[in-house]
Design brief:
Layout (H helix, E strand, L loop, with lengths): L12 E7 L11 H15 L4 E6 L2 H13 L7 E5 L7 H4 L2 E5 L2 E8 L2 H4 L4 H4 L1 H7 L6 E9 L5 E3 L4 E5 H7 L5 H12 L3 E5 L17 E3 L4 E5 L9 H13 L9 E5 L6 E3 L5 E3 L8 E3 L2 E6 L4 H12 L4 E6 L10 H4 L1 E4 L5
């Protein structure tokens, strides 16, 4: 049997997994706006590959299907499955897939609602439910009693893992960096774990997930969220993170090629009482699919600049902007909603 490995996101995929929003999720207050983003997201994904859409019941499937058909989505590439869920952040509650030849191992880590911040009992059972439904082929599920979200890690597909110390230390207080590195390397079949000590976004309740900050764009390249405004509250942390990335080395000892993403203007959520909350808008929260990179767009002049950076980082892929401003109201964006499924995994 071939050795198990964690594929990079840019490797060929069979489908992307999402869950449709409904009034029983945290999207209830702004459901109409969020549904528009979901339609745009599904439309973009199905240009390039299949999508598996989890729905809470038959009525929601009927509604979602009608919304997609009315927007001329290629329904031959859409598959619906029925399963209960608390919320729709599939990057963190979906399976992390290892590959071995033509077979797969679905890692089912504990999902605790980002350290107990939110109810997550249904989401924590999602991988087990989906596995029992026969959606995945040539695969086994491995339950791991350890809190880890998919958004907290990024891999180059060649044995190097990137993560933030803040997130993992928050989930596992008292654990040493050495012990966490060893556990991640063992479970995820990596031989290098690179840690960032800096980087955060206001409004982020994930404790600094790496997929909002810095992402591999190959074994020798990293795309990251930069900030060049000294007056901005993020300036110090993101400048320090940029310096950390510049100090990292590839497996052969050379510096990574770095692609800094522009910084959008602050987006504020103003409450009924006049309170102002900054939302976590990051261009690093992009999704790689077959032949394309789907980029979160926020209706900001920096959207075009971010697309140009991603074109340079991924010269062989089309860059597709997906309007994601409604998503950051719940502190996540495009990548957070989705989980890619490697080629051959979907039955």
């Amino acid at each position: 049997m071939s050795a198990l490995r964690l594929p990079a996101e840019w490797e060929t995929q069979s489908a992307v997994l999402i869950a449709w929003p409904h009034a029983g999720t945290d999207w209830a207050e702004r459901l109409g706006e969020v549904e528009e983003t979901y339609v745009a997201l599904v439309s973009a994904i199905t240009r390039f590959e299949d999508i598996v859409v989890i729905v809470a019941d038959d009525d929601l499937q009927t509604y979602a299907e009608a919304r997609l058909r009315s927007n001329r989505v290629d329904m031959d590439r859409v598959r619906f499955v029925d399963a209960p869920y608390d919320d729709t952040w599939l990057r963190d509650s979906g399976p992390i897939t290892l590959q071995s030849g033509e077979g797969f191992r679905l890692l089912d880590f504990r999902f605790t609602g980002w350290g107990g911040k939110f109810e997550a009992s249904l989401d924590d059972q999602l991988v087990e439910r989906l596995t029992g439904m026969g959606i995945f082929s040539k695969s086994t599920r491995q339950a791991i009693d350890f809190a880890l979200e998919g958004g907290a890690i990024d891999t180059d597909g060649a044995g190097t893992l990137l993560s933030t110390w803040q997130c993992l230390a928050e989930r596992h207080p008292g654990a040493t960096r050495e012990s966490l590195s060893a556990k991640l390397a063992d479970w995820l079949h990596q031989d290098r774990v690179l840690w960032l000590d800096h980087g955060y976004l206001e409004g982020d309740d994930t404790d600094a997930h790496i997929d909002t900050l810095a992402r591999f764009a190959g074994t020798d390249a990293i795309v990251f969220q930069a900030c060049d405004d000294p007056a901005d509250s993020h300036y110090g942390e993101l400048q320090a993170m940029a310096a950390e990335l510049a100090a990292l080395r590839t497996r052969d000892g050379t510096p990574y090629r770095l692609f800094p993403l522009p910084w959008p203007q602050p987006i504020l959520d103003i409450g009924e009482d006049g309170s102002r909350r900054r939302l976590a808008a990051s261009y690093a929260n992009f999704l790689i699919v077959n032949g394309a990179v789907l980029m979160p767009a926020y209706g900001d002049p920096a959207d075009a600049q971010a697309a140009t950076v991603l074109e340079k980082a991924f010269p062989d892929r089309e860059i597709v902007q997906v309007p994601c401003r409604p998503l950051i109201w719940q502190n996540g964006s495009l990548h957070c909603l989705t989980m890619q499924l490697p080629a051959g995994l979907v039955a």
